[in-house]
Amino acid sequence: MYFIHSVPVSEPLPCPSCGMRLGELSQTGRVGCPECYRHFSERLNPYIRRVHGPAAHTGRIPKSAGEQLYRKRQLAELQNALQDAISRQEFEQCAELRDQIAALNGGGETP
After folding, report:
1. N or C: which end of the chain has fewer CB within 10 A?
2. Amino acid 110: pLDDT
3. d(C-alpha 63, C-alpha 78), whole Å
4. pLDDT in the model for residue 107
């Protein structure tokens, strides 16, 4: 399955490393080299996110990493949720998220 269907074939700038053009990429669905990901990132990233989800690892946290890593991940998730709620102007949810973030930063429990 090819994931870049709507990409125009007439891309003027090929990859500086391997010379692959965006039209070739849209036909094969494969990049030519690691530099292609950087060169075509503006076009590729939305499709990659749609297929694979977020770029950050969201697996389980090993016990040896401790509470600090868990708290850091939780804080990042809450801050992302807060930004989304702000953009949607859901102010009650913003207040709840703000309180949860403050509790995590203060080291206390969430309300």
Report:
1. N
2. 45
3. 22
4. 56
Q: Is-contact 36 15, C-beta < 8 A?
A: yes
Has residue 81 got a pLDDT over 50? yes
CA distance 34 to 107: 41
Contact in structure between 31 and 37 (CB atoms under 8 Å): yes
Q: Look up residue 15 and give its DSSP letter.
A: -
Under DSSP, is residue 96 helix (H, G, I), strand (E, B) or coil?
Answer: helix
Q: 2, 27 in Cβ contact below 8 A?
A: yes
Residues 6+ apart with CB under 8 A from 24: 32
Residues 5-57: pLDDT tens digits?
A: 554 445 458 888 888 888 888 788 788 888 888 888 888 877 777 777 666 65
